[in-house]
Amino acid sequence: MAKTLVLTEKPSVGRDIARVLGCNQKGDGCLLGDRYIVTWALGHLVTLADPEAYNEKYKSWNMDDLPMLPDKMKLVVMNETARQFKAVQALMKRGDIAELVIATDSGREGELVARWIMQKAGWNKPAKRLWISSQTDRAIKEGFSTLRPAAEYDNLYKSAQARAEADWLVGLNVTRALTCKFNASLSAGRVQTPTLALLVEREQEIKNFEPRDYWTVQLAAGGFTATWRDAKGQSMIFDRAKAEAIVAAVSGGEGVLSAVTREYKHQAPPAAYDLTELQRDANKKYAYTAKQTLSYMQSLYETHKALTYPRTDSRYITDDVAATLLERLKSVAIGDYKELAQELIRKRPLSTRYIVNNAKVTDHHAIIPTDEQIDLFRLSPEERNIFDLVVRRFIAVLSPAFEYEETKIKLTAGKQDFYAKGKIVKTAGWKAAYGNLLASDDEDGEEERDQSLPPVRQGDRVKITAAKLIAGKTKPPARYNEATLLTAMENPARHMENKELREVLETTSGLGTPATRAEIIEKLFSSFYAERRGKEIVPTSKGIQLVGIVPGELRSAELTAKWEQRLSLISKGKARDQDFIADMRGYAAKLVTTVKASDLKFVHDNVTREKCPDCGKFLLDVKGKKGKMLVCPDRECGYRKSVVIETNARCPNCHKKLEMRGEGENRMFTCICGHREKLSDFEKRKAAAGANKAEVRKFMNNQQDIEPANSALAEQLAKWKENQ
């Protein structure tokens, strides 16, 4: 009997699909059934070959060998997943396999995963495509009932492969050119470099900023507080004498309410979540990194079946998904959401005006709950927090608008005008989904805060009971944190002058995709181009210098805009992928020539006097993810040594986090308050506090989870896709 082979992207997804299809017998890297065999990749099983696969000379990094422009790009099986590839290939070559169902992630990257495996394994039989947005049993069954010919997605594959090959050609050539030219471990790419440029540009703005003193004038009158503003609506006064004159002119006098306006307003709910917006809110509320949020979201999607596909850039759903909203509401009518969800269910029909928009849905719709019943106690605290964000947003977007009456007062005293405003809530609407949890983000930066106003009428005269001068200083722009950097990556268009390309970025995903932005940010840290200082992200000297020496085109988001413009046309069958790759070959050669001709310098300003034990070069002092490290500058050496590890252990005196210094048995915890404690003494104290040896050992292992040696050579050749 002929069988169908189903190829998924991950084992967990494969097991879910296998259960639905009745494949219960274990095989080698697969699950077997009467009609289907389900197998899986482990992410990418196949990738583009490293440069040395084309020529032995590329094993060494030499400027004279650049640019590297292979006539035809080769695919190779990745060493770490070679066993699973062989298992998949063996299944594809079985005589009883009649067709293949591509069930990898429904998107450009998922298409690439499957097609490269099929190409390398020599698949030449019919293939179909499963395209679903959640991993529930119902979604899987419906997806298999509406399979599409794989050929319909050929153009999507062509655009994915073109993007991958272009990143190889540009990223690896420029990385090698920079590293050879400046004798430092440097890398560049079309997404990484403009993202770093955003950080460097902001740092320069802060450095050049000169604060100015200013004053504002506030007065109390008639039971409310009002703020002075000029004819242009500005409240800051940069002339102290002028500010003092205003205070003197109105103190102890009377004012007249020259204008009192009452206006009914309504505020629509925010759109449902896409991945970037979710990462942004999770960073603001819980200080989760973009990478952490994606990990928790992936678990909620794959393991718990609680939420839909995470790697989406859409904040809306389509009409067909709207038909399932009632069942999704019923699935979240639990715990803290029960009353909120049931209220919406009782008031049917559901309002979908703020969530349904077919035109704004791309590969996947917004992140929303599935129709699966969820046991909240099975979720980790972190997963619970992400689930809470999504469910409350889901309930909010199905709720009515927030309605209120806003009163604005203009008080005139002498020839000066002062302003106040207040708000009376008429209908809580979507804000009821958040209760007291919602921060009043819409009021950020406003000069007059809402206040409770007494009954007032236009023309009333009021006694001024107090007038005061408030001093302040203008502030520089804030450094990026992960939330604001994600926003800047999603909307880099404001940094561009070309209107057409700006529009392209506004209609695409910006810098990177929702799925890759977390990786890009983490890459900036692991390459020591940026570091975290609390919540702030600050470019290092290495990062600042790199932006200064890299070819100008790579610093701008325009390169990504141009690529996305053409890749979009390729995915729609309106442009040829071969033409794009030919242009990228020429572009890579041009960039290498630019680097070769550069007369700029790169200087390590963090060199120590300690020599590398492997190659003898002086080590660099850097701040890694877990603390202070010494790193060899030689790209092929890769030696790293942890000097100070930032731990989660708390000082018994001041309760601040302890640092760990030293090696082996000489390791010691230290605190800024002066506390010192040997590792052995720490273990005894933990044991006395009730922790057993296994717990202490686990804790210590977590503290020593430092970054592995990660030379530019290894990074750029084995992980080319990170150089997007």
Structural description of this entry:
- This protein is α+β, with helices and mostly antiparallel strands.
- The chain is built from 23 helices and 24 strands.
- Strands 2-3-4-1-7-8-9 form a 7-stranded mixed beta sheet, sandwiched between helices. The protein has a 7-stranded antiparallel beta sheet with strand order 18-19-20-21-22-23-24.
- Strand 10 and strand 11 form a beta hairpin.
- It is globular.
- 39% of the residues are buried.
- The C terminus is likely disordered.
The major beta sheet can be summarized as: 7 strands, mixed
CATH topology of the largest domain: Topoisomerase I, domain 2
Q: Mind telling me the C-alpha Rg?
A: 30 Å
Q: Widest sheet: strand order? A: 2-3-4-1-7-8-9
What key phrases describe this protein's structure?
724 residues, alpha+beta, Rossmann fold, Topoisomerase I, domain 2, Topoisomerase I, domain 3, 5 domains, seven-stranded mixed β-sheet, seven-stranded antiparallel β-sheet, 23 helices, 24 strands, 37% helix, globular, disordered C terminus
How are the SSEs ordered, and which strands pair?
Elements: E1 3-8, H1 11-21, E2 25-27, E3 30-32, E4 36-40, E5 46-48, E6 75-77, H2 82-92, E7 97-103, H3 108-121, E8 127-129, H4 137-145, E9 148-149, H5 154-182, H6 192-208, E10 213-221, E11 224-228, H7 240-250, E12 254-267, H8 275-286, H9 290-302, H10 319-322, H11 325-331, H12 338-346, H13 381-397, E13 402-413, E14 416-427, E15 461-473, H14 482-490, H15 499-507, H16 517-526, E16 530-533, E17 536-539, H17 541-549, H18 552-555, H19 558-571, H20 577-596, E18 607-611, E19 618-623, E20 627-631, E21 640-650, E22 657-661, E23 668-670, E24 676-678, H21 679-688, H22 693-703, H23 712-718
Parallel strand pairs: 1-4, 1-7, 7-8
Antiparallel strand pairs: 2-3, 3-4, 5-6, 8-9, 10-11, 10-15, 11-14, 12-13, 12-15, 13-14, 16-17, 18-19, 19-20, 20-21, 21-22, 22-23, 23-24
